[in-house]
Amino acid sequence: MSQAFDVVVIGAGPGGYIAAIRAAQLGFKVACIDEWKNAAGGPAPGGTCTNVGCIPSKALLQSSEHFEHANKHFEEHGISTGKVTMDVAKMVGRKDTVVKQNNDGILYLFKKNKVAFFHGRGSFVKAVDGGYEVAVAGDKPETLVGKQVVVATGSNARQLPGVPFDEDKVLSNDGALRIGAVPKKLVLIGSGVIGLEMGSVWRRLGADVTVLEGLPTFLGAVDEQIAKEAKKAFDKQGLKIELGVQVGEVKVGKKSVTVNYTSAKGEAVALEADKLVVSIGRVPNTTGLNAEAVGLALDERGAIVVDADCKTNLPGVWAVGDVVRGPMLAHKAEEEGVAVAERIAGQHGHVNFNTIPWVIYTSPEIAWVGRTEQQLKADGVAYKAGTFPFLANGRARALGDTTGMVKFLADAQTDEILGVHIVGPMASELISEAVVAMEFKASAEDIARICHAHPSLSEATKEAALAVDKRTLNF
Ligand code: FAD
Ligand code: NAI
Known about the structure:
- α1 (14-25) links the parallel β1 (3-10) and β2 (30-34).
- The chain has 13 helices and 22 strands.
- It has helices at 14-25, 47-52, 54-73, 88-112, 173-176, 193-204, 224-237, 330-344, 373-378, 394-399, 427-439, 444-448, 458-468, and strands at residues 3-10, 30-34, 116-119, 121-128, 131-137, 142-151, 155-157, 170-171, 185-189, 208-212, 240-242, 246-252, 257-262, 268-273, 275-278, 282-284, 317-319, 358-360, 365-370, 383-389, 405-411, 417-424.
- It has 3 domains: 3-157 and 283-351, 3-Layer(bba) Sandwich (FAD/NAD(P)-binding domain), CATH 3.50.50.60; 170-280, 3-Layer(bba) Sandwich (FAD/NAD(P)-binding domain); 355-468, FAD/NAD-linked reductase, C-terminal dimerisation domain (Enolase-like, domain 1, 2-Layer Sandwich), CATH 3.30.390.
- The strands form 5 sheets. Strands 1, 2, 3, 4, 5, 6 and 17 form a 7-stranded mixed beta sheet that branches. A 5-stranded parallel beta sheet has the order 8-15-9-10-11. A 5-stranded antiparallel beta sheet has the order 18-19-22-21-20, sandwiched between helices.
- The chain has 475 residues and is an alpha/beta fold.
- α1 runs parallel beside α8 (330-344) and α3 runs antiparallel to α4.
- The structure holds flavin-adenine dinucleotide and 1,4-dihydronicotinamide adenine dinucleotide.
- 1,4-dihydronicotinamide adenine dinucleotide binds next to α6 and β18.
- Residues 189-195, 197, 212-215, 247, 279-282, 327-329, 359-361 line the site of 1,4-dihydronicotinamide adenine dinucleotide.
Protein backbone atom coordinates (compact mmCIF):
# COMPACT_ATOMS: atom_id res chain seq x y z
CA MET A 1 0.00 0.00 0.00
CA SER A 2 1.34 3.42 -0.86
CA GLN A 3 1.08 6.44 1.40
CA ALA A 4 -0.30 9.60 -0.18
CA PHE A 5 1.14 13.08 0.40
CA ASP A 6 0.57 16.53 -1.03
CA VAL A 7 4.32 17.09 -1.25
CA VAL A 8 7.16 14.55 -1.28
CA VAL A 9 10.63 16.04 -0.84
CA ILE A 10 13.66 13.92 -1.84
CA GLY A 11 16.73 15.01 0.14
CA ALA A 12 16.92 16.63 3.58
CA GLY A 13 19.83 19.01 3.04
CA PRO A 14 19.21 22.75 3.51
CA GLY A 15 17.18 22.86 0.29
CA GLY A 16 15.00 19.85 1.06
CA TYR A 17 14.39 20.09 4.79
CA ILE A 18 13.53 23.78 4.59
CA ALA A 19 11.18 23.16 1.62
CA ALA A 20 9.48 20.39 3.65
CA ILE A 21 9.05 22.58 6.73
CA ARG A 22 7.74 25.57 4.75
CA ALA A 23 5.30 23.33 2.83
CA ALA A 24 4.05 21.89 6.15
CA GLN A 25 3.65 25.41 7.57
CA LEU A 26 1.47 26.19 4.55
CA GLY A 27 -0.87 23.34 5.48
CA PHE A 28 0.30 20.57 3.16
CA LYS A 29 0.73 16.91 4.13
CA VAL A 30 4.47 16.49 3.59
CA ALA A 31 7.00 13.64 3.46
CA CYS A 32 10.76 14.11 3.34
CA ILE A 33 13.10 11.27 2.33
CA ASP A 34 16.84 11.26 3.08
CA GLU A 35 19.39 8.49 2.87
CA TRP A 36 22.32 9.95 4.87
CA LYS A 37 23.46 7.59 7.63
CA ASN A 38 25.34 8.48 10.80
CA ALA A 39 28.13 6.24 12.13
CA ALA A 40 25.56 3.97 13.79
CA GLY A 41 23.53 3.65 10.58
CA GLY A 42 20.76 5.93 11.83
CA PRO A 43 19.33 8.96 10.03
CA ALA A 44 21.46 12.08 9.75
CA PRO A 45 19.34 14.72 8.00
CA GLY A 46 20.95 18.00 7.00
CA GLY A 47 22.79 16.83 3.90
CA THR A 48 26.26 17.88 2.87
CA CYS A 49 25.91 21.14 4.77
CA THR A 50 25.28 19.56 8.16
CA ASN A 51 27.29 16.35 7.84
CA VAL A 52 30.37 17.14 5.74
CA GLY A 53 30.13 20.80 4.78
CA CYS A 54 29.22 24.13 6.33
CA ILE A 55 28.73 23.05 9.92
CA PRO A 56 31.67 20.67 10.54
CA SER A 57 34.08 22.90 8.60
CA LYS A 58 33.11 25.89 10.73
CA ALA A 59 33.53 23.81 13.90
CA LEU A 60 37.10 22.89 12.89
CA LEU A 61 37.84 26.43 11.73
CA GLN A 62 36.77 27.69 15.17
CA SER A 63 38.85 25.12 17.08
CA SER A 64 41.94 25.72 14.98
CA GLU A 65 41.52 29.49 15.28
CA HIS A 66 41.39 29.21 19.08
CA PHE A 67 44.57 27.12 18.91
CA GLU A 68 46.33 29.70 16.75
CA HIS A 69 45.21 32.55 19.03
CA ALA A 70 46.41 30.73 22.12
CA ASN A 71 49.74 29.98 20.46
CA LYS A 72 50.45 33.24 18.72
CA HIS A 73 48.26 36.06 19.99
CA PHE A 74 47.44 35.54 23.67
CA GLU A 75 50.89 36.77 24.63
CA GLU A 76 50.25 40.26 23.26
CA HIS A 77 47.23 40.46 25.64
CA GLY A 78 49.49 39.58 28.55
CA ILE A 79 48.24 36.00 28.81
CA SER A 80 50.84 33.27 29.22
CA THR A 81 49.71 29.72 28.78
CA GLY A 82 52.83 27.58 28.67
CA LYS A 83 52.96 25.06 25.87
CA VAL A 84 49.65 24.86 24.04
CA THR A 85 48.80 21.46 22.59
CA MET A 86 45.99 20.22 20.39
CA ASP A 87 44.17 16.94 20.92
CA VAL A 88 42.99 16.34 17.34
CA ALA A 89 40.73 13.43 18.31
CA LYS A 90 38.94 15.66 20.82
CA MET A 91 38.62 18.48 18.29
CA VAL A 92 37.12 16.07 15.72
CA GLY A 93 34.87 14.58 18.44
CA ARG A 94 33.56 18.04 19.29
CA LYS A 95 32.88 18.64 15.61
CA ASP A 96 30.93 15.35 15.48
CA THR A 97 28.87 16.45 18.48
CA VAL A 98 28.05 19.75 16.79
CA VAL A 99 26.98 17.83 13.67
CA LYS A 100 24.76 15.51 15.72
CA GLN A 101 23.11 18.46 17.48
CA ASN A 102 22.17 19.77 14.04
CA ASN A 103 20.93 16.34 12.81
CA ASP A 104 18.78 16.00 15.94
CA GLY A 105 17.56 19.56 15.55
CA ILE A 106 16.21 18.79 12.09
CA LEU A 107 14.48 15.59 13.28
CA TYR A 108 12.88 17.67 16.04
CA LEU A 109 11.76 20.30 13.51
CA PHE A 110 10.19 17.57 11.34
CA LYS A 111 8.20 16.35 14.35
CA LYS A 112 7.22 19.86 15.37
CA ASN A 113 5.97 20.65 11.85
CA LYS A 114 4.41 17.20 11.29
CA VAL A 115 6.68 16.34 8.35
CA ALA A 116 6.80 12.54 7.89
CA PHE A 117 10.47 11.56 7.63
CA PHE A 118 11.57 8.46 5.72
CA HIS A 119 15.15 7.20 6.05
CA GLY A 120 16.36 5.66 2.81
CA ARG A 121 16.96 6.32 -0.86
CA GLY A 122 14.07 7.87 -2.75
CA SER A 123 13.63 7.11 -6.42
CA PHE A 124 10.97 7.81 -9.00
CA VAL A 125 8.87 4.79 -9.97
CA LYS A 126 6.32 6.25 -12.36
CA ALA A 127 3.90 9.05 -13.00
CA VAL A 128 0.45 8.21 -11.64
CA ASP A 129 -2.90 9.90 -11.87
CA GLY A 130 -2.38 13.29 -10.20
CA GLY A 131 1.21 12.81 -9.11
CA TYR A 132 4.26 10.57 -8.90
CA GLU A 133 5.05 7.32 -7.20
CA VAL A 134 8.32 7.43 -5.26
CA ALA A 135 9.91 4.33 -3.72
CA VAL A 136 11.91 4.52 -0.51
CA ALA A 137 14.63 1.88 -0.30
CA GLY A 138 15.89 1.59 3.25
CA ASP A 139 15.45 -0.44 6.40
CA LYS A 140 11.71 -0.16 5.92
CA PRO A 141 10.87 -0.04 2.18
CA GLU A 142 7.88 2.18 1.44
CA THR A 143 6.02 3.51 -1.55
CA LEU A 144 4.85 7.10 -1.43
CA VAL A 145 2.70 9.05 -3.83
CA GLY A 146 3.21 12.80 -4.01
CA LYS A 147 0.95 15.22 -5.85
CA GLN A 148 4.03 17.43 -6.00
CA VAL A 149 7.67 16.29 -5.74
CA VAL A 150 10.61 18.51 -4.76
CA VAL A 151 14.03 17.09 -5.67
CA ALA A 152 16.84 18.37 -3.43
CA THR A 153 19.49 15.69 -3.83
CA GLY A 154 22.50 18.02 -3.60
CA SER A 155 26.00 17.47 -4.94
CA ASN A 156 29.14 15.37 -4.55
CA ALA A 157 32.83 16.27 -4.61
CA ARG A 158 34.36 16.24 -8.11
CA GLN A 159 37.26 13.80 -8.36
CA LEU A 160 40.41 14.26 -10.41
CA PRO A 161 40.10 12.06 -13.49
CA GLY A 162 41.62 8.65 -12.70
CA VAL A 163 42.23 9.51 -9.02
CA PRO A 164 39.29 8.18 -6.97
CA PHE A 165 38.81 9.31 -3.38
CA ASP A 166 39.99 6.66 -0.93
CA GLU A 167 39.45 9.04 2.05
CA ASP A 168 42.79 7.88 3.43
CA LYS A 169 45.43 9.45 1.20
CA VAL A 170 43.18 11.10 -1.38
CA LEU A 171 40.49 12.99 0.46
CA SER A 172 37.29 14.74 -0.51
CA ASN A 173 35.71 17.27 1.86
CA ASP A 174 34.46 14.26 3.83
CA GLY A 175 37.93 12.88 4.60
CA ALA A 176 39.42 16.36 5.02
CA LEU A 177 37.03 16.91 7.94
CA ARG A 178 38.10 13.79 9.82
CA ILE A 179 41.87 13.59 9.51
CA GLY A 180 42.92 11.88 12.74
CA ALA A 181 46.30 13.53 13.33
CA VAL A 182 47.94 16.69 12.02
CA PRO A 183 49.65 15.70 8.76
CA LYS A 184 53.24 16.86 8.36
CA LYS A 185 52.63 17.77 4.75
CA LEU A 186 49.23 18.42 3.23
CA VAL A 187 48.54 19.24 -0.40
CA LEU A 188 45.19 20.57 -1.60
CA ILE A 189 44.30 20.81 -5.27
CA GLY A 190 42.05 23.81 -5.97
CA SER A 191 42.34 27.14 -4.15
CA GLY A 192 38.60 27.71 -4.06
CA VAL A 193 36.47 27.88 -0.96
CA ILE A 194 37.20 24.39 0.39
CA GLY A 195 40.93 24.58 -0.44
CA LEU A 196 41.31 27.79 1.54
CA GLU A 197 39.08 26.83 4.48
CA MET A 198 40.47 23.30 4.93
CA GLY A 199 44.01 24.45 4.16
CA SER A 200 43.66 27.06 6.90
CA VAL A 201 42.45 24.52 9.47
CA TRP A 202 45.41 22.18 9.04
CA ARG A 203 47.98 24.98 8.61
CA ARG A 204 46.87 26.50 11.93
CA LEU A 205 47.36 23.13 13.58
CA GLY A 206 50.92 22.89 12.29
CA ALA A 207 50.79 21.14 8.90
CA ASP A 208 52.98 22.33 6.05
CA VAL A 209 50.21 23.17 3.57
CA THR A 210 50.48 23.74 -0.18
CA VAL A 211 47.46 24.64 -2.29
CA LEU A 212 47.80 24.03 -6.03
CA GLU A 213 45.54 26.09 -8.28
CA GLY A 214 45.06 25.61 -12.01
CA LEU A 215 44.04 29.18 -12.81
CA PRO A 216 46.64 31.95 -13.00
CA THR A 217 44.53 34.31 -10.85
CA PHE A 218 43.74 33.91 -7.17
CA LEU A 219 40.01 33.77 -6.33
CA GLY A 220 38.90 34.93 -9.76
CA ALA A 221 35.28 35.43 -8.68
CA VAL A 222 36.27 37.78 -5.86
CA ASP A 223 36.87 41.53 -6.32
CA GLU A 224 40.54 41.79 -7.39
CA GLN A 225 41.53 44.30 -4.71
CA ILE A 226 39.99 42.13 -2.00
CA ALA A 227 41.53 38.91 -3.39
CA LYS A 228 44.96 40.60 -3.46
CA GLU A 229 44.63 41.69 0.16
CA ALA A 230 43.53 38.18 1.19
CA LYS A 231 46.43 36.58 -0.68
CA LYS A 232 48.88 38.88 1.15
CA ALA A 233 47.45 37.72 4.47
CA PHE A 234 47.57 34.01 3.54
CA ASP A 235 51.19 34.38 2.31
CA LYS A 236 52.13 35.98 5.65
CA GLN A 237 50.52 33.08 7.53
CA GLY A 238 52.60 30.57 5.57
CA LEU A 239 49.75 29.06 3.55
CA LYS A 240 51.57 28.27 0.31
CA ILE A 241 49.37 28.91 -2.73
CA GLU A 242 50.78 28.09 -6.17
CA LEU A 243 48.81 29.50 -9.06
CA GLY A 244 48.74 28.48 -12.73
CA VAL A 245 49.86 24.89 -12.17
CA GLN A 246 48.96 21.95 -14.35
CA VAL A 247 48.35 18.87 -12.27
CA GLY A 248 49.63 15.65 -13.87
CA GLU A 249 49.92 12.16 -12.46
CA VAL A 250 49.01 11.50 -8.83
CA LYS A 251 50.77 8.49 -7.33
CA VAL A 252 49.19 7.01 -4.23
CA GLY A 253 51.66 5.08 -2.07
CA LYS A 254 51.24 3.22 1.22
CA LYS A 255 52.56 6.04 3.36
CA SER A 256 52.30 9.08 1.14
CA VAL A 257 50.88 10.54 -2.01
CA THR A 258 52.86 12.33 -4.72
CA VAL A 259 51.39 14.99 -6.94
CA ASN A 260 53.27 15.62 -10.16
CA TYR A 261 52.60 19.01 -11.67
CA THR A 262 54.00 21.63 -13.99
CA SER A 263 54.46 24.99 -12.30
CA ALA A 264 53.47 28.30 -13.88
CA LYS A 265 57.13 28.73 -14.85
CA GLY A 266 57.06 25.38 -16.68
CA GLU A 267 59.09 23.42 -14.11
CA ALA A 268 58.20 19.78 -13.48
CA VAL A 269 57.58 19.28 -9.75
CA ALA A 270 56.88 16.12 -7.74
CA LEU A 271 55.34 17.09 -4.43
CA GLU A 272 55.08 14.39 -1.78
CA ALA A 273 52.59 14.71 1.05
CA ASP A 274 50.96 12.65 3.79
CA LYS A 275 47.50 13.51 2.50
CA LEU A 276 45.97 15.07 -0.60
CA VAL A 277 42.68 16.94 -0.53
CA VAL A 278 41.01 17.35 -3.91
CA SER A 279 38.77 20.43 -3.82
CA ILE A 280 38.13 21.24 -7.48
CA GLY A 281 34.41 21.86 -7.31
CA ARG A 282 31.30 19.74 -6.93
CA VAL A 283 28.97 17.89 -9.28
CA PRO A 284 25.16 17.71 -9.02
CA ASN A 285 23.92 14.43 -7.56
CA THR A 286 21.08 12.48 -9.11
CA THR A 287 22.47 9.01 -8.37
CA GLY A 288 19.71 6.55 -7.64
CA LEU A 289 16.94 9.04 -8.31
CA ASN A 290 15.81 7.07 -11.38
CA ALA A 291 15.12 10.31 -13.23
CA GLU A 292 14.73 8.32 -16.49
CA ALA A 293 11.64 6.51 -15.17
CA VAL A 294 9.64 9.72 -15.39
CA GLY A 295 11.66 11.54 -18.06
CA LEU A 296 13.10 14.20 -15.74
CA ALA A 297 15.48 16.31 -17.87
CA LEU A 298 19.14 16.72 -16.84
CA ASP A 299 21.70 18.97 -18.54
CA GLU A 300 25.18 17.95 -19.75
CA ARG A 301 26.63 18.50 -16.21
CA GLY A 302 24.04 16.16 -14.74
CA ALA A 303 22.14 19.03 -13.10
CA ILE A 304 18.34 18.95 -13.16
CA VAL A 305 17.10 21.49 -15.69
CA VAL A 306 14.87 24.10 -14.06
CA ASP A 307 13.45 27.48 -15.00
CA ALA A 308 13.79 30.63 -12.89
CA ASP A 309 11.03 29.29 -10.58
CA CYS A 310 12.74 25.89 -10.01
CA LYS A 311 10.14 24.14 -12.18
CA THR A 312 11.49 21.09 -14.02
CA ASN A 313 10.27 19.81 -17.39
CA LEU A 314 7.63 17.71 -15.54
CA PRO A 315 4.42 19.19 -14.18
CA GLY A 316 4.43 19.06 -10.37
CA VAL A 317 8.16 18.25 -10.11
CA TRP A 318 10.48 20.95 -8.75
CA ALA A 319 14.21 20.94 -7.98
CA VAL A 320 16.27 23.18 -5.68
CA GLY A 321 19.78 23.65 -4.29
CA ASP A 322 23.07 22.18 -5.49
CA VAL A 323 21.34 19.80 -7.93
CA VAL A 324 20.25 22.77 -10.09
CA ARG A 325 22.00 25.80 -11.66
CA GLY A 326 23.37 28.66 -9.59
CA PRO A 327 25.80 28.96 -6.72
CA MET A 328 26.26 25.87 -4.54
CA LEU A 329 25.47 27.56 -1.23
CA ALA A 330 23.32 26.39 1.66
CA HIS A 331 21.43 29.69 1.97
CA LYS A 332 20.67 29.70 -1.79
CA ALA A 333 19.27 26.16 -1.44
CA GLU A 334 17.15 27.24 1.54
CA GLU A 335 15.73 30.28 -0.23
CA GLU A 336 14.81 28.13 -3.23
CA GLY A 337 13.18 25.58 -0.90
CA VAL A 338 11.00 28.26 0.70
CA ALA A 339 10.12 29.81 -2.67
CA VAL A 340 9.08 26.44 -4.15
CA ALA A 341 6.85 25.58 -1.17
CA GLU A 342 5.19 28.99 -1.51
CA ARG A 343 4.75 28.57 -5.28
CA ILE A 344 3.10 25.17 -4.69
CA ALA A 345 0.69 27.03 -2.39
CA GLY A 346 -0.06 29.51 -5.17
CA GLN A 347 2.00 32.28 -3.57
CA HIS A 348 4.77 34.30 -5.22
CA GLY A 349 7.98 32.94 -3.69
CA HIS A 350 11.02 34.82 -4.94
CA VAL A 351 14.80 34.42 -4.79
CA ASN A 352 16.92 37.45 -5.66
CA PHE A 353 20.11 36.01 -7.16
CA ASN A 354 21.71 39.49 -7.16
CA THR A 355 21.77 39.67 -3.39
CA ILE A 356 23.03 36.22 -2.42
CA PRO A 357 26.03 36.76 -0.14
CA TRP A 358 29.22 34.72 -0.36
CA VAL A 359 31.52 34.10 2.59
CA ILE A 360 34.88 32.36 2.83
CA TYR A 361 35.47 31.58 6.50
CA THR A 362 39.24 31.94 6.54
CA SER A 363 41.13 34.41 8.67
CA PRO A 364 40.74 37.09 7.47
CA GLU A 365 37.21 36.26 6.37
CA ILE A 366 36.20 37.21 2.85
CA ALA A 367 32.60 38.19 2.14
CA TRP A 368 30.81 39.89 -0.69
CA VAL A 369 27.48 40.63 -2.28
CA GLY A 370 26.70 42.06 -5.70
CA ARG A 371 29.09 42.84 -8.51
CA THR A 372 32.88 43.16 -8.35
CA GLU A 373 34.84 46.07 -9.83
CA GLN A 374 35.99 43.85 -12.70
CA GLN A 375 32.38 42.81 -13.45
CA LEU A 376 31.19 46.43 -13.49
CA LYS A 377 33.99 47.33 -15.91
CA ALA A 378 33.08 44.37 -18.14
CA ASP A 379 29.40 45.40 -18.00
CA GLY A 380 30.32 48.98 -18.92
CA VAL A 381 28.69 50.42 -15.79
CA ALA A 382 29.96 53.79 -14.55
CA TYR A 383 30.66 53.41 -10.81
CA LYS A 384 32.27 55.06 -7.80
CA ALA A 385 34.36 53.09 -5.30
CA GLY A 386 35.04 53.73 -1.62
CA THR A 387 37.25 51.72 0.72
CA PHE A 388 38.02 51.86 4.41
CA PRO A 389 40.78 49.85 6.10
CA PHE A 390 40.22 48.02 9.41
CA LEU A 391 43.59 49.50 10.43
CA ALA A 392 41.73 52.76 11.07
CA ASN A 393 38.86 51.12 13.00
CA GLY A 394 39.00 51.34 16.80
CA ARG A 395 37.22 48.05 17.47
CA ALA A 396 39.55 46.18 15.08
CA ARG A 397 42.56 47.64 16.92
CA ALA A 398 41.10 46.56 20.26
CA LEU A 399 40.48 43.09 18.85
CA GLY A 400 44.04 42.96 17.58
CA ASP A 401 42.86 42.16 14.07
CA THR A 402 43.31 45.04 11.66
CA THR A 403 43.82 43.12 8.42
CA GLY A 404 41.71 44.07 5.44
CA MET A 405 39.07 46.56 4.40
CA VAL A 406 35.48 47.21 3.43
CA LYS A 407 34.87 48.28 -0.15
CA PHE A 408 31.72 49.84 -1.60
CA LEU A 409 30.87 50.07 -5.28
CA ALA A 410 28.02 52.44 -6.16
CA ASP A 411 26.44 53.64 -9.37
CA ALA A 412 28.17 56.83 -10.55
CA GLN A 413 24.87 58.60 -11.29
CA THR A 414 22.32 57.24 -8.82
CA ASP A 415 24.67 56.21 -5.97
CA GLU A 416 22.78 52.86 -5.72
CA ILE A 417 24.98 50.23 -4.07
CA LEU A 418 26.08 47.72 -6.71
CA GLY A 419 28.49 45.62 -4.65
CA VAL A 420 30.07 45.41 -1.22
CA HIS A 421 33.28 43.47 -0.65
CA ILE A 422 34.93 42.80 2.68
CA VAL A 423 38.14 41.12 3.73
CA GLY A 424 38.75 41.24 7.45
CA PRO A 425 37.45 40.29 10.88
CA MET A 426 33.83 39.11 11.08
CA ALA A 427 33.22 39.84 7.40
CA SER A 428 30.62 37.02 7.53
CA GLU A 429 28.49 39.06 9.94
CA LEU A 430 29.21 42.49 8.48
CA ILE A 431 28.03 41.52 5.00
CA SER A 432 24.39 41.22 6.18
CA GLU A 433 24.04 44.99 6.39
CA ALA A 434 25.11 45.25 2.75
CA VAL A 435 22.65 42.51 1.72
CA VAL A 436 19.77 44.33 3.43
CA ALA A 437 20.86 47.63 1.90
CA MET A 438 21.03 46.16 -1.61
CA GLU A 439 17.72 44.34 -1.19
CA PHE A 440 16.13 47.73 -0.40
CA LYS A 441 18.04 49.36 -3.29
CA ALA A 442 19.82 51.69 -0.86
CA SER A 443 22.38 54.26 -1.95
CA ALA A 444 25.87 54.47 -0.45
CA GLU A 445 24.73 57.73 1.13
CA ASP A 446 21.90 55.88 2.95
CA ILE A 447 24.49 53.75 4.76
CA ALA A 448 26.77 56.74 5.32
CA ARG A 449 23.91 58.59 7.08
CA ILE A 450 22.90 55.71 9.37
CA CYS A 451 24.14 55.75 12.98
CA HIS A 452 26.45 52.76 13.64
CA ALA A 453 27.45 51.71 17.17
CA HIS A 454 30.86 52.79 18.41
CA PRO A 455 33.23 51.10 18.69
CA SER A 456 32.19 48.42 16.23
CA LEU A 457 33.56 46.81 13.10
CA SER A 458 30.40 47.98 11.34
CA GLU A 459 31.74 51.53 11.52
CA ALA A 460 34.18 50.43 8.79
CA THR A 461 31.11 49.73 6.63
CA LYS A 462 29.74 53.22 7.25
CA GLU A 463 33.15 54.76 6.57
CA ALA A 464 33.55 52.83 3.30
CA ALA A 465 30.14 54.19 2.28
CA LEU A 466 31.37 57.70 3.19
CA ALA A 467 34.50 57.02 1.15
CA VAL A 468 32.34 56.65 -1.98
CA ASP A 469 31.72 60.40 -1.60
CA LYS A 470 35.38 60.95 -0.62
CA ARG A 471 34.51 62.05 2.92
CA THR A 472 35.70 59.46 5.40
CA LEU A 473 35.90 60.87 8.91
CA ASN A 474 38.48 58.55 10.44
CA PHE A 475 40.98 57.99 7.64
P1 FAD B 1 22.80 18.64 0.17
O1 FAD B 1 23.13 19.41 1.37
O2 FAD B 1 23.89 17.98 -0.56
O3 FAD B 1 21.72 17.56 0.61
C1 FAD B 1 21.23 16.59 -0.25
C2 FAD B 1 20.68 15.46 0.58
O4 FAD B 1 19.96 14.60 -0.27
C3 FAD B 1 21.75 14.60 1.27
O5 FAD B 1 21.40 14.40 2.61
C4 FAD B 1 21.70 13.28 0.50
O6 FAD B 1 21.99 12.17 1.32
C5 FAD B 1 20.24 13.25 0.08
N1 FAD B 1 19.98 12.42 -1.10
C6 FAD B 1 20.57 12.48 -2.32
N2 FAD B 1 19.98 11.61 -3.17
C7 FAD B 1 18.99 11.02 -2.47
C8 FAD B 1 18.01 10.05 -2.80
N3 FAD B 1 17.90 9.56 -4.05
N4 FAD B 1 17.18 9.66 -1.83
C9 FAD B 1 17.24 10.15 -0.57
N5 FAD B 1 18.13 11.08 -0.21
C10 FAD B 1 18.99 11.52 -1.15
N6 FAD B 1 27.62 26.52 1.83
C11 FAD B 1 27.40 27.66 2.51
O7 FAD B 1 26.45 28.39 2.21
N7 FAD B 1 28.20 28.02 3.55
C12 FAD B 1 29.26 27.28 3.93
O8 FAD B 1 29.96 27.64 4.88
C13 FAD B 1 29.52 26.08 3.23
N8 FAD B 1 30.56 25.30 3.58
C14 FAD B 1 30.78 24.15 2.90
C15 FAD B 1 31.88 23.39 3.25
C16 FAD B 1 32.16 22.22 2.57
C17 FAD B 1 33.35 21.40 2.97
C18 FAD B 1 31.28 21.80 1.53
C19 FAD B 1 31.53 20.51 0.81
C20 FAD B 1 30.19 22.56 1.17
C21 FAD B 1 29.93 23.75 1.84
N9 FAD B 1 28.86 24.57 1.50
C22 FAD B 1 28.64 25.73 2.17
C23 FAD B 1 27.92 24.19 0.42
C24 FAD B 1 26.64 23.59 1.01
O9 FAD B 1 26.98 22.48 1.80
C25 FAD B 1 25.69 23.18 -0.11
O10 FAD B 1 25.47 24.27 -0.97
C26 FAD B 1 24.36 22.72 0.47
O11 FAD B 1 24.53 21.64 1.33
C27 FAD B 1 23.40 22.34 -0.64
O12 FAD B 1 22.19 21.93 -0.08
P2 FAD B 1 21.23 20.90 -0.83
O13 FAD B 1 20.04 20.75 0.05
O14 FAD B 1 21.03 21.31 -2.22
O15 FAD B 1 22.05 19.54 -0.91
P1 NAI C 1 35.46 25.94 -5.91
O1 NAI C 1 34.70 26.02 -7.17
O2 NAI C 1 35.24 26.97 -4.87
O3 NAI C 1 37.02 25.94 -6.22
C1 NAI C 1 37.61 24.99 -7.04
C2 NAI C 1 38.97 25.50 -7.47
O4 NAI C 1 39.67 24.42 -8.07
C3 NAI C 1 38.89 26.61 -8.51
O5 NAI C 1 39.72 27.68 -8.11
C4 NAI C 1 39.36 25.94 -9.79
O6 NAI C 1 40.02 26.82 -10.66
C5 NAI C 1 40.32 24.90 -9.24
N1 NAI C 1 40.51 23.74 -10.10
C6 NAI C 1 39.59 23.03 -10.78
N2 NAI C 1 40.16 22.00 -11.43
C7 NAI C 1 41.49 22.03 -11.13
C8 NAI C 1 42.60 21.22 -11.47
N3 NAI C 1 42.46 20.13 -12.24
N4 NAI C 1 43.80 21.57 -10.99
C9 NAI C 1 43.97 22.64 -10.19
N5 NAI C 1 42.96 23.45 -9.83
C10 NAI C 1 41.72 23.14 -10.28
O7 NAI C 1 35.17 24.46 -5.35
P2 NAI C 1 35.42 23.79 -3.94
O8 NAI C 1 36.41 24.54 -3.14
O9 NAI C 1 35.62 22.35 -4.23
O10 NAI C 1 34.03 23.96 -3.23
C11 NAI C 1 32.85 23.50 -3.87
C12 NAI C 1 31.71 24.41 -3.59
O11 NAI C 1 31.24 24.19 -2.27
C13 NAI C 1 32.03 25.90 -3.62
O12 NAI C 1 32.02 26.42 -4.92
C14 NAI C 1 30.94 26.47 -2.81
O13 NAI C 1 29.81 26.58 -3.62
C15 NAI C 1 30.72 25.40 -1.77
N6 NAI C 1 31.41 25.79 -0.53
C16 NAI C 1 31.03 26.93 0.09
C17 NAI C 1 31.68 27.34 1.24
C18 NAI C 1 31.28 28.63 1.85
O14 NAI C 1 30.26 29.16 1.47
N7 NAI C 1 32.04 29.15 2.80
C19 NAI C 1 32.74 26.56 1.85
C20 NAI C 1 33.09 25.39 1.07
C21 NAI C 1 32.42 25.02 -0.05
